[in-house]
Write a structure and sequence with these properties.
The protein is an alpha+beta fold and 233 residues long. 35% of the residues lie in helices and 20% in strands. The termini are far apart. About 8% of the residues have low confidence.
Length: 233
């Protein structure tokens, strides 16, 4: 059974993974955009190649926290496994059917049939905080969930999608990805996990310019001078 959302798929790890994804994606975008600007290139192909660095950055960050990994063939990409879910970070290309055609390569398609790794003696996590507290509460539920997934076979795929251009990191989203019988990918629980702050300049542009409209003069009422006797005028 496919989880209905990344939060359901990742369980008590969801909060920590979400924050880590945002941190890694923003850092990688800043470096890629700076390199693209320094190169003076007229083309953005080089900037778009950051997708492989995104995979490696997230893999290394989660491996440092004790999470296992799974190697996808034939390309051999190493992807992190969180709560028996495969986590794939992807910079979305600017094509209309990019998401539905996500599994167009053999490597990505194999991600939807990946088997969970052997159980670990100790459950990895992000230390103190919400994840730590929730993990203590739902240990038995998490064990049952993992057993059900093991019987079911392949791991769910949590797809983290980065939308960006050399000028701006536009958004970061995630969802549980499912491969249907036609080879197309559909998303469950699709939601944003990071968006840029509102542009102050855009808000200010809605204000009418000084060179338009009819000026309204302030109403000024005459005021008596202090200390002057009105009857003496």
């Amino acid at each position: 059974m496919v989880p209905l959302s990344p939060a359901e798929a990742l369980g008590s790890h969801a909060h920590g993974v979400r924050d880590l994804l945002v941190e890694v994606a923003r850092s990688r975008h800043d470096r890629a955009a700076e390199a693209h600007l320094a190169s003076g290139s007229r083309y953005s192909m080089g900037f778009g190649s950051q997708w492989r660095d995104l995979l490696d950055d997230v893999m290394e960050a989660l491996a440092d926290r004790g999470y296992q990994s799974h190697k996808l063939s034939p390309a051999g990409y190493e992807l992190p496994v969180v709560n028996d879910c495969l986590l794939y970070v992807w910079r979305v290309p600017g094509t209309p059917d990019a998401i539905t055609d996500f599994a167009s390569s053999p490597t990505r398609k194999n991600g939807f049939s990946a088997q969970p790794p052997d159980p670990m003696l100790f459950e990895p996590g992000f230390g103190d905080g919400p994840d730590h507290d929730e993990a203590a509460e739902d240990t038995e539920e998490a064990k049952i969930d993992r057993l059900v997934r093991a019987v079911g076979g392949s791991m769910p795929v949590v797809l983290a999608m980065v939308h960006s251009s050399p000028r701006q990191l536009q958004s970061i989203e995630w969802a549980v990805a499912e491969l249907d019988e036609t080879g197309k990918v559909k998303l469950h629980g699709h939601e944003p996990i990071w968006e840029p702050e509102a542009n102050v300049d855009a808000v200010a542009s809605d204000v009418e310019s000084f060179d338009r409209g009819t000026p309204v003069e302030p109403v000024i009422e005459p005021r008596e001078q202090e200390g002057t006797d009105p009857d003496a005028r």
